[in-house]
Design goal:
The protein is an alpha/beta fold. The chain has two domains: 2-99 and 177-258, Rossmann fold; 107-176, no CATH class. The protein is built from ten helices and ten strands. It has helices at residues 2-13, 60-67, 90-97, 115-125, 132-145, 161-173, 191-208, 219-225, 243-247, 252-258, and strands at residues 20-31, 34-45, 49-53, 75-80, 83-84, 100-103, 179-183, 211-215, 228-233, 236-241. The strands form two sheets. The chain has a six-stranded mixed β-sheet, sandwiched between helices. The chain has a four-stranded antiparallel β-sheet with strand order 2-1-4-5, with helices on one face. α6 (161-173) runs parallel beside α7 and α7 (191-208) runs parallel beside α8. The longest helix is centred in the last third of the chain and has 18 residues, at 191-208. The chain is globular and about 55 Å long. The chain starts with a helix and ends with a helix. Bound molecules: adenosine-5'-triphosphate and magnesium ion. Magnesium ion (MG) binds at residues 60-61, 105, 183.
């Protein structure tokens, strides 16, 4: 009970837009002799959507895996809500993960469960909700938010790719995380569905005041969702600005990402 109160207190007081929610300094990570992250520096502020652009294999997914403590960095510091993630014990890491929603690149749902069961799972397992009427109400609320109100009793195999992404997003959002990490949320979707998912990410930011890191190759997604864009190359973040600023940037790599945009 005391633990729960502490979490609530933190959540409620935390509406300061200048607060740095994720603070990354000189982050390094190598695999064998491959230096993937060389010197990553990034502050993400409360309520902000930061889009990370970068070519394949540059370490974008590795960066967010470090943020949730799935990978341990080799150097530098990584603070989330002011706590150094590397120093957290198992219990504290678990508590931190309850505040972070992670939409994986694959966006997996459990295929043997209905959409409703998929959504109830994090509520019963992570938040220990047992009251059926609360479960029903939260499932309905989130499915309505992502435009899937009629799909609660469908199996994932009966959903289209876009609907599966929405359902994956709903499952991540149902625990109302303060931070959302999106790893290529629109990959594999047609342009119209991609745009809908991007709009949804924006709506979720407004509705739940989430702080988000969005990794994407989809420039339309970046345009729709980004308060700020950072470009990652060879283990460093090399340029940043608003979407409009990046559009006019002299940086050669920025130019190559934005060259087809008018
Ligand atoms: N657990 C791991 N063990 C060993 N190498 C890894 C591991 N995770 C990532 N890598 C390597 O780190 C590099 C960066 O991978 P990462 O998945 O972060 O790239 P990315 O920028 O997300 O690329 P993409 O745009 O293709 O998703 C790759 O060379 C990858 O092979
Ligand atoms: Mg990746």
């Amino acid at each position: 009970m005391a633990e729960q109160e502490l979490t609530l207190e933190k959540t409620e007081k935390a509406n300061d837009p200048n607060e740095v929610v994720i603070e990354i300094k000189n982050l390094k990570k190598s695999f064998g002799n491959k230096d993937v992250l060389k010197d990553i520096n990034l502050d993400v502020h409360r309520g902000e959507n930061v889009v990370v652009l970068g070519r394949s294999g540059q370490g974008k997914s590795v960066t967010i895996q470090c943020i949730v403590g799935m990978l341990v960095p080799d150097g530098g510091t990584l603070r989330v809500f002011g706590d150094d993630v590397v120093d957290l014990g198992e219990k504290e890491l678990k508590e931190l993960r309850m505040k972070i929603g992670f939409l994986f690149q694959s966006g997996a749902l459990y295929d043997s469960m209905t959409v409703r069961e998929n959504l109830e799972f994090p509520l019963t397992r992570v938040l220990k909700v047992t009251d059926q009427s609360e479960l029903d109400q939260r499932v309905e609320e989130i499915l309505t938010s992502v435009g899937l109100a009629d799909a609660a009793d469908k199996m994932p195999s009966d959903l289209s790719g876009g609907m599966r992404k929405r359902a994956g997003l709903a499952r991540t959002l149902i625990i109302k995380p303060e931070i959302m990490l999106y790893d290529e949320p629109t990959t594999g979707l047609d342009p119209i569905t991609s745009r809908e998912i991007s709009q949804l990410i924006l709506e979720m930011q407004k509705k739940y005041k989430t702080t988000s890191v969005i990794i994407t190759h989809d420039m339309e997604c970046a345009r729709i969702t980004a308060d700020r864009v950072v470009i990652m190359n060879e283990g460093e973040y090399i340029a940043e600005g608003t979407f409009e600023e990046m559009l006019k940037s002299d940086n050669e790599l920025a130019k190559s990402f934005f060259k087809d945009i008018s």
